[in-house]
Amino acid sequence: MNKTASKQINIGNVTLKSCVALSPLAGITDFILRKLIREYSKTALLVTEMISSEALVQKSDCNIAYSDKKESPISFQIEGHKPELMARSAKILEDKADIIDINMGCPINKIVKGQDGCSLMKNPELARDIVIAVKEAVNIPVTCKFRLGWGLDSKNFVEFAQLMQESGVSAVTVHARTRSQMYSGTADWGELAKLKGEIDIPYFANGDIVSPESALKCLEISKADGISVGRASMGDLSLLYRIEKYINDGILIPEPDLSEKISMLKKHLDEEIVFRGEETGIKFFRKFYPCYIKNIRGGGEFRHRLVTELNYNNIINILKEILHNGQ
Ligand SMILES: Cc1cc2nc3c(=O)[nH]c(=O)nc-3n(C[C@H](O)[C@H](O)[C@H](O)COP(=O)(O)O)c2cc1C
Q: Mean pLDDT of residues grouped by 10 in the chain (327 residues)?
């Protein structure tokens, strides 16, 4: 077992007892999902979905930044390209955050056309100015998350990480794909090993970690200090905890069975309804059904019925049918 993996990670003056982090997922890693993941893992670093600095400063998008208490250890991710607005956003979030993370990896057109997200990898001076401005505004550590580069022939993640370190970030997370790959192909964990010895701050490897076993493999191949897990945490609230148990203690907790997954689904749905109201909560939740009921008999039909159903009691009845069908 890789004993080095269980070491603490120091991000500036914040000590993480775990090398496992939740990846930011817009529209997914909201306050509710983080709260439910925290019931399993007390130590994983939780990260919010990206929070638009423009929206936050204009006070029009505060729902995304909602948190009812400090969810430590927790990092709030901000997104934008104007150093002054990014600094003001970080200041607004500072009290609820242990760490401020800056999004430099989002590949979607809407974001990169405005110089935000991954386009900052093509404009390292602006990325540096943002980090410097955010650092000056807050007294907590600042980190950033980016990709291997813009295109397969312009992978600049090593120099970019060095520049971010010089500018003052205390850790980086790298999604092992380029912007041009979006989410296609497989994450190249081996590329990330090039960072070893090139920066003094910790780095988290990200992309395609789906299980405790793949998490350990990613740590070994990437030589990273930590790992960041995104999409696979949808549909299994215990995944981060199971990864921690495997990496730290060598204990492989099996994946939850169908009945456990349906309980998780129901709890998640109920909490979203309390948080957002019944109709909005049920509509918001549609994206989660396929993740909780993957690979079940008759899955396609059940998924279709769930995502088109707006009546709570009918949803509960479909869940009972799924359980009955699966056992
Ligand atoms: C629906 C969705 C939303 C995402 N939102 C964000 C985001 O807000 N901030 C960010 O840095 N990355 C975001 N990402 C990228 C993920 O954090 C992560 O880098 C990527 O999904 C690869 O990791 P995974 O294979 O573990 O999911 C998003 C990805 C998806 C699929």
A: 64 97 97 97 97 89 78 96 97 96 97 95 98 98 98 96 98 98 97 98 98 98 98 97 97 97 98 97 98 91 96 98 86
CATH number of 3-249: 3.20.20.70
Rounded to a whole number of angstroms, the distance between the first and last alpha carbons of the chain is 35
The sign of the CA dihedral 80, 85, 87, 91 is negative
Q: What is the radius of gyration, based on Cα positions, of the chain?
A: 20
Which atom, in ligand 1's list, is nearest to the CA of 105? 11
For the annotated catalytic residues, the residue numbers are 106
Contact 228, 21 (CB under 8 A): yes
Residue type (1 letter), 99: I
pLDDT of residue 60: 60
Nearest CA to ligand 1 atom 6: 25
Mutate to test the pocket of ligand 1, among 20, 23, 76, 177 (most ligand atoms within 8 A of CB): 23
| CA 175–ligand 1 middle distance (angstroms) | 9
**Residue 124 to residue 113: CA distance in whole angstroms:** 16
Domain spans, the chain: 3-249, 258-326
pLDDT of res. 326? 79
> In the structure, which protein residues have their CB atom closer than 6 angstroms to any atom of ligand 1?
23-26, 28, 49-50, 77, 103, 105-106, 145, 175, 206-209, 229-232
DSSP character for 272? H
**In CATH terms, are 3-249 and 258-326 the same topology?**
no
Dist. CA 192–CA 206, nearest whole Å: 9
Q: The domain 258-326: what is its CATH number?
A: 1.10.1200.80
Q: What is the pLDDT of residues 112-132, one digit of tens each?
A: 999 999 999 999 999 999 999
- In whole angstroms, give the CA distance from residue 90 to residue 86: 6
pLDDT score recorded for residue 3: 44
